[in-house]
Amino acid sequence: MDGLDEIVAALAGPSRVILISRGEVDLRPSAANNRLFLMKIGEGSLAAGGRGGGFGERKVTAVLCFEKKAGVWSKLFEADERSVERYEVPYYVSRLPITMADGSETMGYGVVDPELVTDMSGKSGIHSPA
Questions:
Q1: What residues contact 107, with CB distance under 8 A and at least 6 apart?
Q2: CA 41, CA 26: separation in Å to the nearest integer?
Q3: What DSSP line would sit under the chain, residue for residue?
Q4: What are phi and psi for residue 71, nearest 5 degrees?
Q5: Residue 73 dihedral angles phi and psi, to the nearest 5°
Q6: Strand 34-41 with 16-21, pairing
Q7: Are residues 8 and 66 in contact, defined by beta-carbon separation less than 8 angstroms?
Q8: CB 117 within 8 A of CB 129
């Protein structure tokens, strides 16, 4: 599965996903270069209660990093459940517009924050985005 297919599958899948992006989330081939992190959120008895946006406990179960260069999305990093404790969901996550590869728009949860992407890149051991 290529990077774009994996991003789309994560967004369409049953798991809740929070996007942390360097720029506007636009998956079209003609869009600008970008780096984004997908944080998969655990489902469970506490996952829907109490917090804004319905994310409840916000237990991160996986972190994936993708980068788009020259029109191609590539996966740079994936953290599993054993190494996700160093990643935290930002408290300021809100609804975020996403432009899909076919140009359609959808809404997800996330934040555009270049500094946070740089910080998460450092925690992941990958170079800071250009």
A1: 95, 96, 97, 98
A2: 22
A3: --HHHHHHHHHHSSSEEEEEESS-EE-STTSPPEEEEEEEE--STTTTSSSGGG-TT--EEEEEEEEEETTEEEEEEEE-TTTGGG----TT-EEEEEE-TTS-EEEEEEEE-HHHHHHHHHHHT-PPP-
A4: 80, 5
A5: -90, 130
A6: antiparallel
A7: no
A8: yes
The encoded tokens of residue 56 equal 């409840």
Can you give the pLDDT of all 130 residues of the chain as single tens digits? Answer: 799 999 999 998 888 999 999 999 999 999 999 999 999 998 764 444 444 555 455 688 899 999 999 999 999 999 977 788 888 899 999 999 999 999 999 999 999 999 999 999 998 888 765 5
pTM of the model: 0.85
**What token pair was written down for 129?**
């985005």
